[in-house]
Every structure is written in C-alpha cells, then in structure tokens.
Design goal:
Blueprint lengths: L1 H31 L5 E3 L4 H9 L11 E3 L11 H38 L6 H14 L4 H7 L5 H12 L5 H6 L23 H14 L4 H10 L5 H4 L11 H13 L19
Parallel strand pairs: 1-2
Length: about 280
C-alpha cells in the first residue's frame, strides 16, 4: 500500500514538472516573440528573385526566410513579377507572426480553464497573463483570448498589397511601412507614417492594431465565432475603419484576395526544421 502511494506521488510530481517545463518553454517563446528564422537583407530585386527561385517551397513547408526590408529598386520591377515576389517575401513573415499568436492563444485558453476551475496558476502562467493584459490592453481573460488571435494570411497579404502598391510605395521601401499605419501624433519634422526597423515589426504592429483597436471589435468578435475556420473574405467586411475609403476599401481588399488567389496561402505552414539567426 505504501509503495503504491509513493508511486502515485512520484508520478504526480513527474507530470507536474513536465507540465511546468512546457509552460515555461512556451512563455519564453512568446515573451521574446522570436522564431528561429533566416534574417536577411538584399540590395537588388533580381538578387532576391534568384534567392527565392533557388528554394523548393511548398505550402506545407515554407522556408522561414525573412527579408528585413524591400530592395530600393523593388517598385521598378514588372508588376506581374513583383506581385509574385511580394507574396514570397511576406508569406514567411505572416506565418511566423501567426505561429506566435496561436501559441499565445493556446496558452491563454489553458490558463482560463484553470481560473474557471479555481486552480492556482504557476508563476510562469501568472507572469505571462500579466504581460498579455498589458500588451492587449485588457484585464478580461475572455477578451484576451479574442484579442490574442491569428489573422488570415490572405488578409495580411491583401492589405499589405493595397497599402503599399504591392511593395512599390515610398513608405514601404524606405520606412518598412507596408500596412499604411500612420502616427498617432503627427510631427512636422517626421513622416506621417510609422517607421519600422524591419518588415516583421511592421507586421506585428498591423496585427496588434487589429487585435486591440476599438474600431475592430466586430472584427475580433466575428473571428472568435469562426473558430479555426477563419473566413478572410467575411472578416474584410469589418475593416471599413482602416481606410478613409470606408466601404469601398472593403471591396478593394476582397477583390485583391479573390483576383490573386490569396486564400490558398491560409493553409500554408512554416518549415519545422531548426534554423539559426544569421
């Protein structure tokens, strides 16, 4: 009887330690918001095209090759070729951001279950929850789950294409601002748009705008109701406040999605092989 009791105690301790290790690992990934990817820069569009041509990407195995900024001559590239290359550049960035958002969402759901069952949160869970409350500007865990969520890749691509002219705009090339995000407080000595260190930072800013701004509450509520099967075409219908074009902007985004077959990229996945920063 004593041996059986000791066995169950050891088993419980082992499971608890394993769970704690998993939680800490996920928290570290989310806190740092990093993913092991190639970080690269290039000076010419032709050089960039050759790099992507040499890859053997398929939708289920996209190389995590992230370009920090568009080449200065990107806007001069023929439109048909530029569109295809623009998608290749942004796809791994969008997938990388969504991978981290999904990890956040999964952990928040797990934490919420423990709260409902009146279970004590571990220190790593507590710290993660407090950080998420700050990042997503809400103390409500249910709202956190709605906010810390993915955005359809096709919607990311379509909005980036619309806001940057498929990567040809000055803001995209010189400021890495591919989503047309303006400064909250204008300064006569600075550009009217935000300046980003790289394209991934711009993408994070874009998704955090959708995930926290009061103007997109209906977007978030609808996305939550959709569950895992997010409909980018329908979600675009809640983006009228993103542009001064209002309802016409919705039509523009929906047309870009359908005309360029962007929905096929919603099911793409990053390569799982380990890659180091360079």
């Amino acid at each position: 009887m004593l041996r059986q009791k000791n066995f169950f105690i050891k088993y419980y301790i082992g499971i608890s330690l394993l769970f704690a290790i998993v939680i800490v690992s996920i928290s570290c990934i989310i806190f740092k918001r990093t993913y092991k990817v190639f970080m690269r820069n290039t000076n010419s569009t032709e050089q960039l095209q050759k790099t992507f041509n040499a890859m053997h990407n398929d939708c289920e195995n996209i190389e995590p090759y992230i370009i920090t900024q568009l080449p200065k001559d990107f806007g001069k590239y023929p439109i048909n070729k530029r569109k295809k290359l623009f998608i290749k550049i942004l796809l791994p960035i969008a997938l990388s951001v969504n991978k981290q958002l999904k990890a956040e969402n999964t952990l928040l759901i797990s934490i919420n279950k423990k709260i409902k069952m009146d279970k004590t949160l571990s220190r790593s869970e507590y710290l993660f929850l407090e950080k998420e409350k700050k990042n997503y500007k809400t103390n409500n865990v249910c709202q956190l789950i709605k906010r810390a969520n993915t955005v359809p890749v096709s919607l990311m691509l379509a909005q980036a294409a619309a806001e940057s002219g498929w990567g040809s705009s000055k803001f995209a090339i010189y400021y890495n601002n591919i989503y047309g995000i303006h400064r909250k407080h204008q300064d006569a000595e600075k550009p009217i748009v935000m300046i980003y260190k790289n394209l991934k930072d711009a993408t994070w800013s874009y998704v955090m705008n959708l995930n926290t701004n009061a103007a997109y509450k209906d977007f978030r509520d609808t996305r939550y109701k959709m569950g895992k099967k997010q409909d980018p075409y329908a979600l675009a219908g809640y983006l009228n406040m993103y542009s001064v074009k209002r309802s016409r902007y919705i039509t523009i985004i929906q047309n870009i999605i359908s005309a360029n077959g962007l929905r096929e990229y919603d099911n793409c996945r990053l390569s799982v092989r380990k890659v180091d920063y360079k």
